[in-house]
């Protein structure tokens, strides 16, 4: 990347559907977990919509009529299916080069995700990215999106101002998180939510691919 002045000190990425090509697997695992318990199986669109939320919040939205005491059981079935297959997942092509270029410009890099701490740590190990991010937040150790807490915590950790903080994600939950924290939001349209839904939240930019996102960051981050 060029040596022009930085516009953003902290760049925060969502994980699933933004850096990690996992949207289809998450949808299948939500559907399989529901089927295991004899519950109505959501369609792909309904299952994809809740991606990015913490697991409990996601399951409540996708199966709203389930008694509260059964959500842990449904969560266990989801995790069973996900962890059995997550080794098949990979980063979107170009993600590693983009992240390395941002590090060379001395941006702080972070992850804000609806995954659990265990899930994120295993994913980072699987793609050998443990040392690349300066900070991470997961839904089970702070508030789930779109509550701004995880982004506010990261901004406090690195001493950055909202206008110097960029949140990048593939869902309206990510863009709402950015707005609620006063940060700048950028969307990617190759993940869980369609461009029309993303545009309604007026992100600074919508990237159709990782290379397109990389080029925008080169020019604007």
Task: Output the keywords.
221 residues, alpha/beta, 6-stranded parallel beta sheet, 10 helices, globular
Description of the structure:
The chain is of the alpha/beta class. 45% of the residues lie in helices and 12% in strands. The protein has a six-stranded parallel β-sheet with strand order 3-2-1-4-5-6, with helices on both faces. Helix 1 (23-36) crosses helix 4 (71-85) and helix 3 (55-62) crosses helix 4.
List the helices and strands and how they pair.
Blueprint: E1 10-13, H1 23-36, H2 44-49, H3 55-62, H4 71-85, H5 95-104, E2 108-113, H6 117-126, E3 135-138, H7 149-158, E4 165-169, H8 172-181, E5 184-188, H9 195-199, E6 206-207, H10 210-220
Parallel strand pairs: 1-2, 1-4, 2-3, 4-5, 5-6
Helix pairs in contact: 1-4, 3-4
**Number of helix segments?**
10
Structural class: alpha/beta
Radius of gyration over C-alpha positions, nearest whole angstrom = 17 Å
Average pLDDT metric? 93
Helix content: 40-55%
Strand content: 5-15%
- Main β sheet profile: 6 strands, parallel
Residue stretches low in confidence (pLDDT < 50, at least 5 long) are none
Q: Give the terminus-to-terminus CA distance.
A: 10 Å
**Looking at the structure, what is the overall shape?**
globular
Q: Quick one: how many beta strands?
A: 6
Strand order of the largest sheet: 3-2-1-4-5-6
Order of helices and strands: EHHHHHEHEHEHEHEH
């Amino acid at each position: 990347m060029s040596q022009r002045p930085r516009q953003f000190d902290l760049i925060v990425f969502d994980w699933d559907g933004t850096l990690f090509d996992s949207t289809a697997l998450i949808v299948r695992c939500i559907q399989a977990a529901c089927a295991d318990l004899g519950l109505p199986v959501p369609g792909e669109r309904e299952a994809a919509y809740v991606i990015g939320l913490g697991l409990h919040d996601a399951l409540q939205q996708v199966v709203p009529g389930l008694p509260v005491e059964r959500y842990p059981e449904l969560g266990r079935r989801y995790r069973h299916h996900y962890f059995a297959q997550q080794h098949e997942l990979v980063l979107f092509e170009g993600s590693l080069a983009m992240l390395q270029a941002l590090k060379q410009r001395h941006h702080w890099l972070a992850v804000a995700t609806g995954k659990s701490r265990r899930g994120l740590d295993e994913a980072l190990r699987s793609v050998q990215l443990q040392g690349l991010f300066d900070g991470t937040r997961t839904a089970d150790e702070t508030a789930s999106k779109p509550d701004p807490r995880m982004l506010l915590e990261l901004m406090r950790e690195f001493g950055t101002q909202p206008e110097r903080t960029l949140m990048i994600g593939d869902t309206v939950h990510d863009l709402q998180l950015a707005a609620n924290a006063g940060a700048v939001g950028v969307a990617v349209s190759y993940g869980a939510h369609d461009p029309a839904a993303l545009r309604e939240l007026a992100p600074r930019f919508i990237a159709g691919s990782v290379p397109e996102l990389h080029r925008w960051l080169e020019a604007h981050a």
